[in-house]
Specification:
2 domains; alpha+beta; 9 helices; 5-stranded antiparallel sheet; Alpha-Beta Plaits; globular
């Protein structure tokens, strides 16, 4: 299985009926693209660096072409990603990868918030430091109970060219689970933040991040368990 996670940036002025038509078309994106599952979520205020929507897709096998070519070849979707009168999406920032690490303690979660973080580990980071960073990042759910489900992995540039090296995703029952419990956690600030902090010598993560969150009705990280 291959997951594609994309952050969609809207064209300036895209709103109203144009977005309603776009969202309606995207509800059937999995059928148009030959994917197993698809979800489009509008970002909640407070999201940074990732545009306006998170678009999750699950494929049985890697699709041909990159994310842009994929939608361009789908007549039901292409007009919304083009320069024509229906075009609303200005940029697709996508990654692809095989599912790697994660836990799904609450597969039946409903009406929740999904958070996605795209990050890039700097070139030249030592392998030992990278392994420790990944281990400590994935240790967060042990200390932050509001993380109901999570997934973490390295992107695969052979499947989709990208500047990002990692995707870190969580599902929370409420937005406060992220904006309060996660963000003020002592483990977050005392252990993980040093990998991101420009003033800390251990930093290996680029300051350029895409931190976004959106509502969802049922678990997205649970798709791979259903397949």
């Amino acid at each position: 299985m291959i997951r594609q996670v994309a952050m969609l940036h809207l064209r300036e002025g895209a709103d109203g009926e144009a977005l309603e038509a776009f969202e309606a078309a995207m509800a059937g994106a999995h059928e148009a693209l030959g994917a197993r599952r698809s979800h489009l979520g509008r970002h909640i205020e407070g999201s940074v660096g990732g545009g306006d929507y998170t678009w999750d897709l699950l494929f049985d096998e890697a699709p041909e072409g990159d994310a842009g070519a994929l939608v361009a070849a789908a007549p039901a979707l292409a007009p919304y990603f083009g320069d024509g009168p229906q075009g609303v999406v200005a940029q697709i920032d996508a990654v692809r990868f095989e599912p790697q690490y994660g836990e799904l303690p609450e597969p039946g979660i409903r009406d929740f918030v999904k958070r996605t973080l795209f990050l890039r580990v700097e070139d030249g980071a030592e392998a030992e430091a990278l392994a420790r960073f990944e281990r400590e990042l994935m240790g967060m759910p042990r200390y932050i109970a509001s993380i109901r489900n999570w997934a973490c992995g390295r992107t695969d540039p052979a499947l989709q060219a990208t500047q990002w090296t990692h995707v870190w995703e969580q599902e929370y029952q409420s937005v406060e689970g992220l904006t309060v419990d996660y963000m003020v956690s002592p483990y977050h600030w005392g252990v993980v933040d040093g990998w991101f902090d420009m003033e800390r010598p251990q930093r290996i993560v680029s300051p350029l991040l895409a931190h976004v969150y959106c509502p969802a009705a049922s678990s997205i990280l649970g798709w791979t368990e259903e397949a």
